[in-house]
Amino acid sequence: MSDTDLTGTNRMTLRVARGADREDRRYDEFEVPYEDGASVLDALVWIRTNCDDTIAFRYSCINANACKECMLLVDGKIDYACTARLGDGTMTLDPLANKRLIRDLVTDIVPPKERLDADSD
Amino acid sequence: MTMRVKTDVFIVGAGGAGMYAAVSAAREGADVILADKSLISRGGSTIMAQMTTAAAVGHEEPDHWTHHLADTIEAGRGLCNEELSAILCEEAVDRILEMDEWKVGWARKDGRMTQVMAPGHQVKRCCYVDFLNTGPAVARALRGEVAQRDGIRRASGLCVVDVVVKDGQVAGAVAFDVESGETVIVESPTVILAAGGLTRLYQRNSASLNMGGDAYALALRAGAALIDMEFVQFFPIGHLAPRLVGMDPIMWDPFRYKLGGRLLNGDMGEFIESYGEQDGGVYTVKRDVASYAIIKEVEAGRGSPHGGAWLSFEHIPEDQLKEAFGPVIGKLARNNIDLTKQPIEVSPIAHYHMGGIRVDAQMRTDVPGLFAAGEAVGGANGANRLSGNAIPEAFVFGDRAGRFAVSHKGSHAGVTDAEAEAVMAQAKPAMTAKKKPDGGAMALMRDLQKTMWEEVGLIRTAETIESALGKVRSMRSDALPQIAVEADTPFNQALQDWCDVRNGLLCAESVVLSASNRKESRGAHQMEDIPETSPEFEKNQVITMKDGELHSGWQDVKRISYTLEEKKAAVL
Known about the structure:
The structure holds two protein chains of two kinds.
Chain A lengths: L9 E9 L7 E9 L5 H11 L20 E4 L2 E4 L9 E5 L6 E3 L2 E2 L14
Parallel strand pairs in A: 1-5
Antiparallel strand pairs in A: 1-2, 3-4, 3-5, 6-7
Chain B lengths: L1 E5 L2 E4 L3 H12 L4 E5 L16 E2 L10 H11 L6 H20 L6 E2 L2 E2 L12 E2 L6 H14 L4 E5 L1 E9 L2 E9 L5 E5 L2 E4 L20 H9 L3 E2 L4 E10 L10 H8 L2 E3 L22 H13 L9 E4 L5 H8 L1 H8 L9 E10 L2 E2 L12 E3 L17 H17 L10 H11 L2 E3 L8 H15 L3 E2 L1 H21 L1 E3 L6 H25 L8 E2 L11 E8 L2 E8 L7 H7 L2
Parallel strand pairs in B: 1-11, 2-3, 2-12, 3-8, 12-19, 20-22, 21-23
Antiparallel strand pairs in B: 4-7, 5-6, 9-10, 10-11, 13-18, 13-24, 14-17, 15-16, 16-17, 24-25
Helix pairs in contact in B: 1-4, 1-10, 2-3, 3-10, 5-14, 12-13, 12-14, 13-14
């Protein structure tokens, strides 16, 4: 598997929520090539590599569904980007609704005790 | 914005090695900061491990760690640092049993751990957690141990830019918070590099996002040495087709361990025997031979449709498949794969790096205060790693790095704001307010992956290596400085990508340079034009950096002799 390549003869459109303000988000549309079985994460990585490197989303394990970092909303439903599959037509991606939005598809899923505070002295 | 923190031990990377190091340092009473670019215990390779964890606990059949050592050294093709190999094999037993107390849930039958045979091992030695759940289970257990120790502070989303060395000793590190962009100065007399290997630098890989060689690049820039960088292990039967999501691409090995499985070429014929090894449906052939055989079949026009080999379980009854792999069979069904009706296609993929940071038995690098642990360490596995040795290596070397870092009497010189600014200035790409459509850091990483895969991959020639050396050097000197990154944005992934490819290029160059100097074929370094293994190259190659230039040298392989007592114990 490669984490930056995406090939295939199918075409679909991905609408991606952008911005750091929920009330004022915009949607960018990307036309994505894909082969049957390709995932939403495949498409997002392809977009970062080939179209727009400012788009933000979390992931670590790349398609193994082990790290569980890539959770987001696919057409309004909670899903992992690495297991949700691309299909014909248009799919819309939004950040998780019940977490603090950081930017684009990234929300604050970091456990509170995994944040570094400055030393008090 | 700058944050400043102080600690006794700063650990870069929170996979198996980093978490074990944190626990071991904390139980010696040290203050620890455990950092990861992703989330603690989620990033890195450990969590992706599916099955085999080699340790001579002897639950399945009689075994002793010296047998494990003999198998490890044999697989290493003459280049194992035998002192490190012996530590790995002996202490793997302690660590696996300790992890058992931490409720990992190793598979058991009648109270004893179940162990399976894996390629290159003489006995059933590999512990695991069902079903294909070893990585998540050990990650969860270690995450729990880390969380309940007061001495450990955790830092998710921290990207370490460089280790700071003053007067020849570690003084700390400089990092940035990925979410806020804030510079974080860590003052610490010891730093443990536990950020894994470099397999993400290859186009076909089983890596996570963080396996781009950060640990090696940080070590080189701090003044430490790397060894054996030419030895990248290719996993022979990575998943190739049909498209499979939600599973680690190396998932097929456990299927073969448990059930057997037929490896077939494009003509549906068994072929391993043509490469001098036994096959016959039982998987015992070592990884380097299997990978080589598949690539050569593809070259000869006998590959599967996507350029690999077929792997067939069609002869295994459905109920047996379900019994052995339970919910995994359902996952495959959701990928439209029915193993009783179809073979799948597999291909070698970059999976592990044998080379790494040069350390002694206490995991100390050449720089006082700088330690390494896990896959980041070079030497224990020589020119070819035995299946099942990576997870115990993470635990064993993590534990040692944690313990010995605590006993290190280091420098408390600290890091000034000016020193931190100098680090950040060097690491910052040109900042721009506009987005770049292409030509960014990810695109450069893609180009690097392609070059490494095609020219310094499984089968190399003097010509392809020379070509790659030129390309990688020009990417590092010309392409990298031209990449601009959007400034001042929350969760600045593009900046992290830039740091990733900066590190990746330095590592790639060390791999290519090492490959160009090893004029023989051995283990994972296979030269098409020099197929012989030469006794004169039974040495470890050492890479160091001075003024931004990489230099290569050679050192003798570290051998040990077993004591009489150990030899007696080995005779069961």
